[in-house]
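Notebook B, p. 112. Complex prediction, attempt 2.
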Amino acid sequence: MARERYIKVLLFACASLSFLAILLIFLFIFRESLPAITKGGFPNLFLSATWDPDKGRYGMLAFLNGTILTTLGGLVLGAPLGIGTAIFLDQVAPRRMGNIIRRGVELLAGIPSVVIGWFGLTILVPFIARVTNSAGYGIGAASVVLAVMVLPTITTLSAETLRSLPPELKEASVSMGATRWQTIRGVLLPAGREGILVAVILGMGRAIGETMAVQMVVGNSRQLTFSLTRGTGTLTSRIVTDMGEATGVFRSALFAQALVLLILAMLLIISIRLITRQKER
Amino acid sequence: MSDNVDSYKMRVENLSMYYENFKALEDISLDFHREHITALIGPSGCGKSTLIRCLNRMNDIIEGSRVEGGITLDGVNIYDPGYDVISLRRRVGMVFQRPNPFPKSIYENVAYGPRLAGIKDREKLDSIVEESLKKAALWDEVKKNLRESGQRLSGGQQQRLCIARVIAVQPEVILFDEPCSAIDPISTQKIEDLMAELKKNYTIVIVTHNMQQAARVSDYTAFMLVQEQGEAGRIVEFGDTDTIFTKPSDKRTENYITGRFG
Amino acid sequence: MDSRRADRIATTVFWAVGLITLGILLFIILEIFGRGLITALSPSFFAGKPEAREAGGGIWPMIASSVYLAVLTMLISLPIAVGAAIYLAEFSREGRLNRFIRFCLDSLSTLPSIVFGIFGMTIFVIKFRWSYCLLAGACTLALLTLPILLRSTEESLRQVPLTYREASMSLGASRWTTVRKVVMPTAMPGIISGTILPVGRIMGEAAAIIYTTGLFVRTIPKSPFDPAAPLAGYIWYAQTEAMVPDYRRIVNGGAAMLLILVFLINFAARRLAKYYSKRKSLGG
């Protein structure tokens, strides 16, 4: 029937919008970042840490460094907590406590970025300032904030992985006289390895892309630093701070930073695909 | 049938089992002779699997389960408060209906049990793995591929792997919960032969819905039944296998054996 | 025995971890509400107009903007998501095309929201010459929400038993008719309840909207082409610019209000999901 075909085409159009969207986003970001790349040159843009828009210097290395370090920090704090909570929910917690914590994680996931950022600004930063005798802003504060934001993602996905393991595995282990921890360590975690890894990678993606909360606590300075308490910036925080006023090559340089974010996101997706395909083998 | 208490490895004494308010087993009393094979037979749903899972307290995992009465292992009641369940399960091993090898290599599957007990020495593990696989009549087939995944084996091989895995823990009793129902006939034969060998060193209890298998393999047989749907399972008759199958004393046993129902 | 000790230690550690996670949530909620709940609930605040330079501003236009934004976004995003989900679940076969579309969707859902924001700014605000307005923000957010809505809609569609479709088609109905008259009505409760949760996400989104809708607008937007200042963006703006002397009060109150809104939506979504699953199990 002709009508059926027409509808099928319409529905297909809806589905292909996703492809269109990704394509457009990529194209536009790439196109807008071209002026900065061609004018400034690749090394000046991506490999230099000198960020001085007034003088036409747009080196983003400091912010790339910031993104990487805050992400790592967020994962170092958030992943063990998340995986541990997932194990707790799946194997240790009595039913009611488990439900309470599950709800709690759900709520935590829903807290908007700006609210967590504000929390970081008003409570975390002064605390760090007191304890380390510094301004309080920086990679340290941003890592804690990111840990809070990736925690629900990692917990939920890891718990799902554990829950979907076949029950025979646990049964076999228990029937051989293994303690609960022995079963978790010897059978459940190894069997759930890929799923948990994917959970952590998705958490990483969240951390890399997080904007508002990080921007509020990271200090927004332009220096490249490895210190936990000296203000610096991330790719996302730089974009959000400057985009309102940037024009011309300056704005283009910000788009170049967005391009880097895009590439990082795609790398994560590809690595997840590789891992899940490996598992299916 | 020897009445000497010392010849019983495990005894079930007036055991009743409940899931929440549902009574699954009613006043079961049964003896398992050392180094002999005892079969539990009966129609589907009569409680034989539930009973065998009480022997290694695997029913504890199910929320809301509880028992009245007791089961003794070498004279000690395993349901005593404070009884070490972990060591119980090392002494009383189980082979399940569906083979359930871990997603690990063949070697690691068998080595899992000894590792639980703290054995780390490589040579010791190697010899335990080899010995267990030999006792499970699987060694010759896999000795060249110990690093391959245990889940790649055929169904019958997987089940023998699971048997090897249990043997590696060095239990005293081995429980078989319908071990051949998911396996091809040739492998079934191999496993039955295996059991005849194993009983020289282990006390064996087997649940089976296959009467011929019970008649072939076991020394003693217990016949279980539920009176009606939703009622608790009971022992109808228990005795040495030859008697049960040729001269059963209970009419219901006779009906089941001759295939009149179930 | 060593393994038993390890087990006890492990159990303690896991309990601690679980309680820490819970504690983090409670700590954040208590702090935000502790500082801002009273402000948030005072009528002069939530029903008042914002001030540009003086103290005593309110956030009513912001709340209204957030709601309008959410509704507009859903109006744009939902039909597309449902259409695409129907295509993927009912009309397409598992193959390379399918996998490719899913790959695009996965990629879309992993992009940072700021990327959507500047993309939206470039296309809608500048290129289309809409300038800062509600519609620009809604279109941007629609892109962001698409993967989430699609996933939950597709899930609901897949939960409809295969036998329903088989029965319908064996009676001579076409695929589309089957979808329209059998699958969709059955899946509808699930689809609806899956729609509520993303609304919370939309309301909390700031990075994607500050360069598309506007940041400080004193009036309630009347048309989609009016600029607007949704609450999440305004909180950030008030804290960054700190133009008014009582900006801390405003941000505290705004944050608390935002939490209230998000939690209410979360609560409603759960309630709805529970209600529908109960009806389902009773044969409704």
